[in-house]
């Protein structure tokens, strides 16, 4: 995955810690990983973790602009070969389906010409709620790939569908996307 630019969006799910392992594995595989975190994601994992693992600055604030004439979120949106949101909350799916852009990650999702994949992670009832299912269908109809969720024991204590795909499975999908073994 040398020199592939992967924009990794991280949202406010308990599964955010798995995104750190994913960012590390992608970086070790040679990818340039730009991490963009929502405010809620930062309640679960600190940006410093991702910065240390990827050796790159982490975007946490749409408004922290050093060059307003060339906004960071537009640069990152343009530079990405793949935008992957992992984990993707129900809230993120809803915002993306509606085209809302209140923060850096959602603005990038609107601005990027790159293919977009999302790995949903949430409580099973949240995933199966008609609103979430409708949002997922809307996103799929626009070409967004939804990777997972899968069945299993959820962090909320329930067994069911909603668990984010395991990191090795996400890596396989990403390599498949780039046609790599
Ligand atoms: C302990 C805890 C765990 C949560 N886990 C999830 C989750 O796995 N999936 C989800 O959709 N929301 C989860 N939430 C709710 C989201 O954090 C909340 O909807 C938030 O607004 C999402 O913001 P974001 O999508 O901008 O990151 C969790 C909340 C808490 C307090």
Spans with pLDDT under 50 lasting ≥5 residues? none
Shape: globular
The spatial strand order of the largest sheet comes to 2-1-3-4-5
Order of helices and strands: EHEHHEHHEHHEEEH
Strand content: 15-25%
Instruction: Give the total of beta strands.
Output: 7
Name the CATH superfamily assignment: Flavin prenyltransferase-like
Rg from alpha-carbon coordinates: 15 Å
CATH architecture: 3-Layer(aba) Sandwich
List the helices and strands and how they pair.
Elements: E1 5-10, H1 16-28, E2 32-37, H2 47-54, H3 72-79, E3 82-88, H4 90-98, H5 104-111, E4 116-120, H6 124-128, H7 130-141, E5 145-146, E6 150-153, E7 159-163, H8 167-177
Parallel strand pairs: 1-2, 1-3, 3-4, 4-5
Antiparallel strand pairs: 6-7
Helix pairs in contact: 1-2, 1-8, 3-5, 4-7
Descriptive account of the structure:
The structure is a single chain. The chain has helices at 16-28, 47-54, 72-79, 90-98, 104-111, 124-128, 130-141, 167-177, and strands spanning 5-10, 32-37, 82-88, 116-120, 145-146, 150-153, 159-163. The chain has 181 residues and is α/β, with parallel strands linked by helices. It has one domain (5-177): Rossmann fold (3-Layer(aba) Sandwich). The protein has a 5-stranded parallel β-sheet, sandwiched between helices. A two-stranded antiparallel sheet has the order 6-7. A hairpin with a 5-residue loop joins strand 6 (150-153) and strand 7. Helix 3 (72-79) crosses helix 5. Bound molecules: flavin mononucleotide.
């Amino acid at each position: 995955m040398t020199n592939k630019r992967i924009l990794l969006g991280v949202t406010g799910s308990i599964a955010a810690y798995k995104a750190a392992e994913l960012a590390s594995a992608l970086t070790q595989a040679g990818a340039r990983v730009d991490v963009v975190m929502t405010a809620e994601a930062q309640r679960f994992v600190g940006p410093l973790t991702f910065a240390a693992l990827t050796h790159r600055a982490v975007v946490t604030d749409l408004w922290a602009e050093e060059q307003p004439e060339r906004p960071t979120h537009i640069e990152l949106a343009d530079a990405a070969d793949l935008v992957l949101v992992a984990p993707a909350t129900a809230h993120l799916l809803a915002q993306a389906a509606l085209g809302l852009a209140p923060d850096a990650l959602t603005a990038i999702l609107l601005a990027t010409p790159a293919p977009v994949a999302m790995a949903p992670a949430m409580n099973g009832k949240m995933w199966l709620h008609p609103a979430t299912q409708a949002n997922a269908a809307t996103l799929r109809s626009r070409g967004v790939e939804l990777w997972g969720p899968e069945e299993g024991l959820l962090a909320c204590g329930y067994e069911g569908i909603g668990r984010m795909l395991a990191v090795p499975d996400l890596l396989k999908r990403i390599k498949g996307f780039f046609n790599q073994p």
